[in-house]
TrEMBL record:
Record-linked InterPro entries: MFS, MFS_dom, MFS_sugar_transport-like, MFS_trans_sf
Compartments it resides in: Cell membrane
Keyword terms of this UniProt record: Cell membrane, Membrane, Transmembrane, Transmembrane helix, Transport
Membrane topology: Multi-pass membrane protein
Name of this chain's protein: MFS transporter
Native organism: Streptomyces canarius
Domain of life: Bacteria
TM segment ranges: 59-83, 95-116, 194-213, 251-271, 283-302, 314-332, 338-360, 372-394, 406-425
Length: 454
C-alpha cells in the first residue's frame, strides 16, 4: 500500500497588510505598464499608418501598422521563457521591477523615433525593434504580478486579490485612451508632426513611479519557503513541461480569449473610423474609455464571485458570453448608430469580457505549484497571447478589401472564444485548494508515472 505524500508545511505568514500592498503594486504597475502597451494600439490604428508607412496606399499602410501591433505578441513567448525562468529561480519582485523599467524605456524611445519621411524604411524597422522590447517586458509583467498577489493573498480571497493585476491592465488602457483623446483632437498637421509623441514621452513617469512602488515589496512567503527548503528548480521550464504540460496547454488555449480585447481595442476602432462607417476618432475613443471604466468595477466583482462559486463557471460566462457580445458590438458599429455602439461596447468589453479577464490570473495561477508558477503563467499566457495579438491582422484580412465585412470578423472572434471555453471545461476547480497544495496533484501524478515500471 502506498503512503500518501505528506502535505507541505504552511509557509511563513505574510507581513501585516502585505496582501493589499502586493495587490496595489500589481494594480499600479500593470496600469502603468499597459498604459504604454495599449497606447501603441491606438497609435497603430490612427497615427502610424501615416507616419511610419507609405500613406499613398492607405489600406496597405494600415495593415502593416496593425501587424507591428502584433509583433510585440510574437516576442512575448521568448520573453516568457527567459523571465519565467529567472522569476522562478530568483523571485517575483526582481521581475516586477525589471519589466516596468524596460517598458518605460522602450515606450519613451518610440516617441523619439524619426518618421518615414525623415529616414525612409529605417523608421518602421526601429519601430518594430521598440515594439519587440515592449513585448518582452509584457511577457513577464502579468505573470510576475499575478504570482506575487496570489502567493500573498488569503486562501479564500485569491480571486479577489489577483484580479487587481487585470483591473490595473484595464486602468492602464483607460489612462492611455484618456491621454490620447485630446491628442487626437489636434489639427492633422500638429498631430502627425509632434502631437502623437507626447503620450509616449510620458512613460518616463511610468518608470519612476513603478520603481518607487515595487521596490518596497516583500518576496512572497510561498517562494521564500520554497527557496529556504532548497526546492527552487534549477530548470523550471523542464519541471513545468514534465509535470504540468496539460495545464500549460490549457492556459495557452485559455489565453486566446485576449483576442476579444485586441479586436475591440484596435480593429473595431479602425473599422468604426473608416470611410465605410465614418464615426469620429474622439467618439470611438470614448467608447473604449467608458468600457474600461466599467471594467474597473466589474473585474473585482466577478473575481469575488469566483471565490464563492469557483473559477470555472465565472470564466465560462466570460468566454461564451464574449462570443455573443462582440458580435452584437460589431453589428452596432455597422449600423452607424453611436448610442447603440456605446451601449453594446460597454456591455461586451466592460461587463461580459471582464468575467474571464478578472478570473484568469487566479484560475491559471492555481494550476501550478509554487516552484514553476511564474514560468507556467508566463509561457502559457504569452504563447496564447502571441496568437491573440495577430488576431487584429487576421481580422483586417478577413474584413476584405473594403475593410467592412464585420460579420466575418465577428465569426472569427467567436471562434477564438471556443478554445478558452474548452480549456475551462477540462480544468480542475481550485478555488478551495490551500495555497501550499496548489499544483501538487500534477506533481504527484508525474511522480507516480515515473515509478511505474515499463
Amino acid at each position: 500500500m502506498s503512503v500518501p505524500a505528506p502535505a507541505p508545511a504552511p509557509g511563513p505568514a505574510a507581513p501585516p497588510g502585505q496582501p493589499w500592498k502586493a495587490a496595489m503594486a500589481a494594480w499600479i504597475g500593470s496600469a502603468l505598464e499597459y498604459y504604454d502597451f495599449f497606447l501603441y494600439g491606438s497609435a497603430a490604428a490612427l497615427i502610424f499608418p501615416k507616419v511610419f508607412f507609405d500613406a499613398s496606399d492607405p489600406a496597405t499602410a494600415t495593415l502593416l501598422s496593425l501587424a507591428t501591433f502584433g509583433v510585440a505578441y510574437a516576442a512575448r513567448p521568448l520573453g516568457a521563457l527567459v523571465l519565467g525562468h529567472v522569476g522562478d529561480r530568483l523571485g517575483r519582485k526582481k521581475i516586477m521591477v525589471f519589466t516596468l523599467m524596460l517598458m518605460g524605456v522602450s515606450t519613451f524611445l518610440i516617441g523619439c523615433l524619426p518618421t518615414r519621411a525623415q529616414v525612409g524604411t529605417l523608421a518602421p524597422v526601429l519601430l518594430v525593434l521598440c515594439r519587440v522590447l515592449q513585448g518582452v517586458s509584457a511577457a513577464g509583467e502579468q505573470a510576475s504580478a499575478g504570482s506575487m498577489s496570489l502567493e500573498h493573498a488569503p486562501p479564500d480571497r485569491r480571486g479577489f486579490f489577483t484580479s487587481f493585476t487585470l483591473s490595473g491592465t484595464q486602468g492602464g488602457q483607460l489612462i492611455a485612451t484618456l491621454v490620447f483623446i485630446p491628442v487626437a483632437q489636434l489639427p492633422e498637421e500638429q498631430l502627425l508632426s509632434w502631437g502623437w509623441r507626447v503620450p509616449f514621452w510620458l512613460s518616463v513617469a511610468v518608470a519612476v513611479v513603478g520603481w518607487a512602488v515595487r521596490r518596497r515589496l516583500h518576496e512572497t512567503p510561498a517562494f521564500a519557503r520554497q527557496a529556504a527548503d532548497g526546492g527552487v528548480a534549477r530548470l523550471p521550464l523542464a519541471v513545468l513541461l514534465r509535470e504540468h504540460w496539460a495545464d500549460v496547454l490549457r492556459v495557452i488555449a485559455g489565453a486566446l480569449i485576449a483576442s476579444v480585447s485586441t479586436v475591440f481595442t484596435v480593429w473595431a476602432l479602425t473599422y468604426a473610423t473608416s470611410d465605410a462607417v465614418g464615426m469620429s476618432r474622439t467618439a470611438m475613443l470614448w467608447v473604449g474609455a467608458l468600457a474600461n471604466l466599467v471594467a474597473l468595477g466589474a473585474i473585482p466583482l466577478w473575481a469575488t464571485l469566483s471565490d464563492r462559486i469557483g473559477r470555472r463557471p465565472v470564466y465560462l460566462i466570460g468566454a461564451v458570453g464574449s462570443a455573443v457580445a462582440m458580435t452584437g458590438y460589431l453589428w452596432a458599429i455597422s449600423t452607424g448608430s453611436y448610442p447603440l455602439t456605446l451601449l453594446l461596447g460597454v456591455v461586451a468589453f466592460g461587463i461580459v469580457y471582464s468575467a474571464a479577464n478578472g478570473v484568469w490570473p487566479a484560475f491559471y495561477g492555481e494550476m501550478f505549484a509554487t516552484r514553476v508558477r511564474l514560468s507556467g503563467l508566463a509561457v502559457g499566457t504569452q504563447t496564447g497571447f502571441a496568437v491573440a495579438g495577430f488576431a487584429v491582422t487576421f481580422a483586417a484580412e478577413i474584413a476584405g478589401p473594403g475593410g467592412d465585412d464585420w460579420a466575418a470578423v465577428a465569426l472569427f472572434t467567436a471562434a477564438l472564444c471556443v478554445p478558452p471555453a474548452l480549456a475551462a471545461l477540462t480544468a480542475r476547480e481550485t478555488h478551495r485548494v490551500p495555497t501550499e497544495l496548489l499544483g501538487e496533484r500534477a506533481t504527484r501524478e508525474a511522480s507516480r508515472r515515473e515509478r511505474v515500471p515499463a
